[in-house]
């Protein structure tokens, strides 16, 4: 019975490790989110922070370009810009 239980635990742990690895590869940090926003819109970053909206982890980047202020939301998982 013990051997059977161990066989069930090992694949679950391996699956969790794979899922964590995939998540880490697809995850964006604040520095990368700032780079994404600057590449897309240019300007100077005056504020950057992590926020949660509707359970979704995002980065809000505030840029100033030619006197205009723009807030950019970057998805923390995919790096996708959610609003221009």
From TrEMBL:
<protein>
    <submittedName>
        <fullName>Peptidase propeptide and YPEB domain-containing protein</fullName>
    </submittedName>
</protein>
<dbReference type="InterPro" id="IPR025711">
    <property type="entry name" value="PepSY"/>
</dbReference>
<feature type="signal peptide">
    <location>
        <begin position="1"/>
        <end position="19"/>
    </location>
</feature>
<keyword id="KW-0732">Signal</keyword>
<dbReference type="Pfam" id="PF03413">
    <property type="entry name" value="PepSY"/>
</dbReference>
<feature type="domain" description="PepSY">
    <location>
        <begin position="29"/>
        <end position="83"/>
    </location>
</feature>
